[in-house]
Structures are given as C-alpha cells and as structure tokens.
Amino acid sequence: MKAADGYVSYIEDFGPNDIECHSYYHYMRVEGGRYDSCLARYDLITESDQEIYIVDDLEKQRITSFCGDDKGVFYVVETFQEKNEERVLFYYDLNSQETETLLTSNDHLTVYKDSSTNRIRVSDGTQKYNIDNGSLQLAENEEVVVSSINSDESCIELVNDDGTEISISKEYGNKEFTYSIGDTTGVISALSDCGGEESGVSYNFIIEENNVVGVVQITKGGSGYGGLGIIPKNILPASKLKREVLVSFDYTTGESEILFETKNNSIRIIGYRDDNVYLLNKGNIIKRNLADGSETELCTLSYEGDNQLSFSWIGSSLVIFDEDDYQVIASVQT
After folding, report:
1. Upper half-sphere CA count for residue 323 (Cβ side, 13 Å)
2. pLDDT at site 141
3. Which pLDDT tens digit goes with each residue over 240-275?
4. φ and ψ at residue 57, rounded to 5 degrees
5. Is 48 helix (H, G, I), strand (E, B) or coil?
C-alpha cells in the first residue's frame, strides 16, 4: 500500500462496538455492470460472499443504499426511465429467502443506519421512517432537513445511553472545534492549536461514560467538496492529509486532551475503545494500549496496491474492504 501516492483509507463504522452481528453487506460489481449493480452479504463466520440482489437492467437500474443485519437487509433500487425515476425499498429475509416490497417513491429514497442511535431509518425526501422489528413506522414530527451543499460547517450529533444529546461542529477556515449540549456550548480546546482550519468532523466518535472520544483528520489543500474540509468518506489523496488526532473531552466539565496523534500521513487511526487505539501501519493492524504504550500486532494484510480501503467495525470484528475492486480483503477478530 503506497500511502504517499494512493488514497486515504477511511472508517465506515467506528468501533469496536456492541453490535451483535456477523453480516457485512456491500456492493459487488457484476460483469458489464456498475459497482452498484449487485448487493452482496459477507459472512464473518464462513468468510464467504452471498449475492443478495442483482439488478435486472444493468443500464437503467442501480442499488442506491442498503442496511441490514443477521435477519435480513433493506435496500433501495432506482430505475431510470424516460423523464421518470422510480425508487423502491425492498426487504430481503435471510431465513425465508423471500423479498418484500415496502415503499415506492418517485422522489429521493434512502435507507441508512442512524449513527447517533444505531437505528435503521428510511428517508423519502420529505419524511423519515423508523424500522422496528422489520416493519416501517412513520417518525412523527420529524421531517427531513436538507442542508446546503455549500455549507461551511460540518456537524455530527451523538446520543448517550442516558438520553444526553451532544453536537460537535466545525466551521471551515476556523481553528475551533465546538460542542453543544442543550443550551450549553463550548470549545474543544485540545484541538484549537492542532492546525485543523481546513478539517471537518465525521461520525468517528464514541461516548464512554462522560467522555466523547474520536478521530479528527488534520488536512491541507481543501477537499473539493465545498467548504466542509476533508471528511473521511470520500476519495482523498494522501498528500492532502497531514496527520490524525485521537481526542477526548468530558462533556460535563468541558475538559479535553489529545490521547494519541500520528506524526504524518503514513499511519491511520482506524478504531478506539477502552483505552486501546487501533492503527494501520504499513499493512499491519496494531492494537496500542494508551496506558502503557504496549502494542500487539493483530494482522498483516496480504494486499498490494494503492486502492482506497475502508474499515467497518461489527462488534469486535474489523472488516477491511477494497473500495475500488469491491471485495473484502480481510476480516480480523480483535
């Protein structure tokens, strides 16, 4: 993996976490089709792929979003027709191997996991739905809010187990990362002098008791995606990344500190939990204990190339996915 020439890997789902699942869903390219022409399920136990759905028309159809678990998967298929676009939400039951049509729309339609609550949700462009026990329920008094693509601010929202809602915001060009809880606002002071004026925030954060811990990328040269700074969910040349920072702040006191930081762009921070940070360093997956500095090598990737990789945590399992060739290259039990 050529960090200097290739693309920065990114975290798709932060962890390790408490998700109890051994299914990883992903796009798979079929011959003659686009990357989103097939939906597949990778089984973490058997380490094998299963094709769930292949579009009927490779030229006029695509799978636009999906979200699932060990029971089944929800996915949206978009069909392009003359002066008309139709989007359909399906549910595939893994046990019965039957497919059910849940919702049809000529407007925007997407299914996703709410990063703040870990619930599967659906948006049709004007309204949101919750999925409870496999059924679609209208989320009352919760309309879709459309943000301007030219917004200079990135913002994430987290919810603690006790219901406390925490927002973290970052305005492009400003060095301050701020947080808000109800009417209380503050600055994450540990990040104020890290050189993150061009950086943004994404859902690479967790809550441990009163502490919010997460990864921030320190970037340069802009992202090419408006003024949001570089958020680790796009194709980013490594030359635009200076380093990464693992920060912690106590949302009850406002105190913050840097727990760990990389010195350059050759090491990725790919996970954190219980005082352990997980790193990608020259093809090696490493667990580093922040209390004593000890390191344990968990895996060496038998992978060559400079394709963009993504990292998804499912419980204590780490799935490493090639975002260019659309295949799982490794799964690691941590």
Report:
1. 18
2. 63
3. 889 999 999 999 999 999 999 999 888 999 999 999
4. -125, 110
5. strand
Place of tokens 């500095």: 293
What are the beta bridge partners of residue 84?
81
Nearest to 204 by CA among 310, 323, 79: 310
227 half-sphere exposure, CB direction, 13 A CA radius: 12
Report pLDDT digits (tens) over 23-63: 999 999 888 888 999 999 999 999 999 999 999 999 999 99
Cβ density class 183-210: b for 16+ within 10 Å, e for less: eeebebebbeebebbbbbbbbbbbbeee
Measured distance CA(199)–CA(108) in Å, rounded: 29
Give the up-direction half-sphere exposure of residue 119: CA atoms within 13 A in the CB hemisphere. Answer: 18
Span 281-301, average pLDDT: 95
3-state secondary structure at position 177: strand
The answer to whether 191 and 170 have CB atoms below 8 angstroms apart is: no
Radius of gyration for the chain, computed over Cα atoms and rounded to the nearest angstrom: 20
Query: Strand 153-159 relative to strand 327-333: parallel, antiparallel, unpaired?
Result: unpaired
